[in-house]
Design a protein that fits this description.
139 residues; alpha+beta; Jelly Rolls; five-stranded antiparallel β-sheet
Length: 139
């Protein structure tokens, strides 16, 4: 059993930026030499998230619009009492989506569906430099 860890650094444009990380994750799997196993992508931080999506223009609008309905920017958040940084909704959204995802790997390839891509969601109110932790486990 082999374990390989790498970091993926990305620069985001700020809130609602959705970054397709599929190709970068595939390159890390190749570098790891994992043929069969799993890959986990983890976001250190409480205002970013990872998930899968069909990376197409309609859904790139639908997802942020839906998050706005679920956790609106203009709602009251207790988080603001302590930090006054305007991103209480960002924390709630990130908690709902989650900080990590695990994908199976077979024959050195991600086992994603035909229209499925891995994405990082920037949910904070400002541009950020992010470092994702990518862990490959397998043979």
């Amino acid at each position: 059993m082999k374990i390989f860890e790498a970091e993926l650094r990305i620069r985001t444009e700020g809130e609602s930026d959705i970054v397709d990380i599929t190709d970068e994750i595939e390159r890390i799997i190749l570098k790891a030499g994992i043929k069969n196993g799993i890959v986990n992508i983890f976001v250190p931080g409480s205002t970013g998230a990872v998930t899968t999506i069909e990376y197409e223009p309609g859904l790139l609008k639908d997802l942020p619009n839906t998050l706005e309905r679920i956790a609106p920017k203009n709602a009251y958040y207790e988080h603001e009492k302590m930090w006054h940084d305007g991103n209480g909704h960002s924390h709630v959204r990130a908690s709902i989506i989650g900080p990590s995802i695990t994908i199976p790997v077979k024959d050195g390839n991600l086992r994603l569906g035909t229209w499925q891509q891995l994405v990082f969601l920037e949910l904070d109110v400002r541009p950020r430099n992010r470092t994702l932790i990518v862990t490959c486990l397998g043979e």
